[in-house]
Amino acid sequence: MTASVLEIRARVRRRRTVVIAAVLLALALIATVSLSVGDYPIAPADLWNTLWGGGDRLQSYVVFQVRAPRLVMALVVGAALGAAGALLQSLLGNPLASPDLLGISGGAGAAAVFGILVLGIGGPLLAVAAFAGGIVVAAFLLLAGRHRADGGYRLILAGVGVAFLTVAITNYLMVRAQVELAQAALIWLTGSLSSTPWWNVATVLAVVLLAVPAVVVCARWLPITQMGAQTAASLGVRASTVRLVTVLTAVVLTAVTCAFVGPIAFIALCAPAIARPLLGHGAIGVGTSAAIGAALLAAADLIAQFAIPGISVPVGVVTGAIGAVFLLWLLATSKGRNL
């Protein structure tokens, strides 16, 4: 191995270390603010004492029962969506590939709305319904992109069509539902982290942790498949298997978050697009995308709670606004023009 190769690898490792450290520092600052501010403000020193078992009963209740579940859910959901977006964008080689734009979130959301409005289900059964909807969309996308020559292009086009179809189905269900149920479904469809119990956090976290091995395997296989199907096959990696595992993993991560907090828009699109230029060298950066997704969603939730004094809006409103601006910027850059 030449000295130049070793120097490049060392430079890549240093850059990755700096990026990860910066993201972790941003996460720590966001978490501190999230746990400190609110109707009952807590000073940083009192927050530190409360986290380590000190503080009075009221401070402990506010931190551990009101603010911490919401913060942890934002971090877990943001990380899951960031990882799902990174996997899909790396698989398809397109910065616009994300679960929401490909219809995966829409399929999970339409199935969940059907469960809420028609079947009257909730909790774990709602998660099962959302997962089933995402699986149906994923199966259709895999079928549409089965040809190796233009599979990515066909899959993106099919995903856009499915996204519009799921919107139509959801709108029809909303129009036919009772006003009270439709209002509840609309709040869920917007995406919200309010009133998050710990059992919801534990469920989402458990599913995400179970999906971590698949994420690691996909992150290792995807760079090989990007060298071409024949090269990947010569190295013992089947491109079709990688595509199947990657899409299913993205569906699992998207569906479980959609079931408990609703379809949070644009986090899966923005997080990988921010991670790639930070890492450089065409890196996939699934872990970095997950960390950036967690920071983005937690910061967006802070904006949703406190940007307008006296008014708290669903976090999906904020992510939608941020994502729309980001998408316009992406389309205006060279990356967008080269799509």
Automatic annotation (TrEMBL):
It is a multi-pass membrane protein. The chain crosses the membrane at residues 71-89, 101-119, 125-143, 155-174, 198-222, 242-275, 281-304, 311-332. Keywords: Cell membrane, Membrane, Transmembrane, Transmembrane helix, Transport. InterPro entries: ABC_BtuC-like, ABC_transptr_permease_BtuC. The keyword Electron transport does not apply. The keyword Secreted does not apply. It is found in: Cell membrane. Pfam families: FecCD. It comes from the Bacteria. Belongs to the binding-protein-dependent transport system permease family. FecCD subfamily. This is Iron chelate uptake ABC transporter family permease subunit.
